[in-house]
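Chapter summary example: a protein plus nicotinamide-adenine-dinucleotide.
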Amino acid sequence: MARDSVDSHEIVIVPEAEIAGLVDANASFEAVEAIFAAMARRDAYNFPVIREAIGHAEALYGFKSGFDRAGLALGLKSGGYWPGNMERGLTNHQSTVVLFDADTGRPKALVGGNLLTALRTAAASAVSIKHLARKDSRVLGMLGAGHQSAFQMRAAAAQRDFEKVVGWNYHPEMLPRLADTAAELGLPFEAVSLEELGAQSDVIITITSSFEPQLMDSFVTAGTHIACMGTDTIGKQEVEPALVARARVFTDEVAQSVTLGEAQHAVGAGLKAEADIVEIGAVINGDDPGRTSEQEVTLFDGTGVGLQDLAVAEKAVSLALERGVATRVPF
Ligand code: NAD
């Protein structure tokens, strides 16, 4: 039995606690960039998302799944939000990835999905920055200071020579997370108003659970790239629809962008046509030019797809096997 493959009578388990030692921001970036490209080539596709209030423990439970015909990643991420978990010493957001052998349908691996979710979400906005932000971007604006924001900032910082981070948050008491993360990256941090954030930033990441627009069109200057990462549900909203209308809009998956992503509002109001929203994978594959001028505002609507989860989970499994640290269980 080869050390780096899975026997047909066993599954591999990669527990949550092992993920940090296996998958980093670079590995996540590579996996997510490749899967976005595969989606645009129609080699990979996502199945419809299920998300339900289950009427127990106030939980929201669901699953995201898909298949990558080229990389043969098949499986699902399941989990959701349990608001009472904090009192039990557990994370409120819970997720686990199950991978299957695409040739036989046998289960192949069970992978902790909590850290992977943060890494794959940060990787998505970083991919958008690589392909869409102006090369001379110097100021990074962070709108949001929750759990995901630190991952977002770290992944973004690897894509451009940022000299400064500016930030705003609805709950100002959370701003130290942004200051600490910027310090870890060796970047100065300034807490600013939303107007000032728009005026100073070359790249803006929005990562909040807001249901109302925070960033207004008039705040944003020409040439800015915005990665809208918080809106992943019907009704959520982070930016003014006029900003989406003004920008050249890119997304992970158009169907999600117009229904539950940031573009749902501008498209719903007739300010943006669905046909004008471009898959980021088309830019990665060279089939779309991406940014067409230094003055253009580009906006990435990162809605979060199951294939991102499968891609980083596959990476975790292959690294665990490669390093001989995979737990194999007869199954
Ligand atoms: P968190 O609970 O740790 O932080 C929430 C953030 O939203 C904080 O900055 C908070 O101040 C802000 N916020 C809360 N209420 C607000 C309001 N009424 N108006 C404006 N801001 C408000 O959450 P997190 O884990 O950092 O996740 C942030 C968002 O990202 C969530 O909405 C989550 O669903 C979303 N998310 C998206 C993806 C994706 O793939 N696109 C993946 C994971 C999480």
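Key point: The chain has a mean pLDDT of 96.
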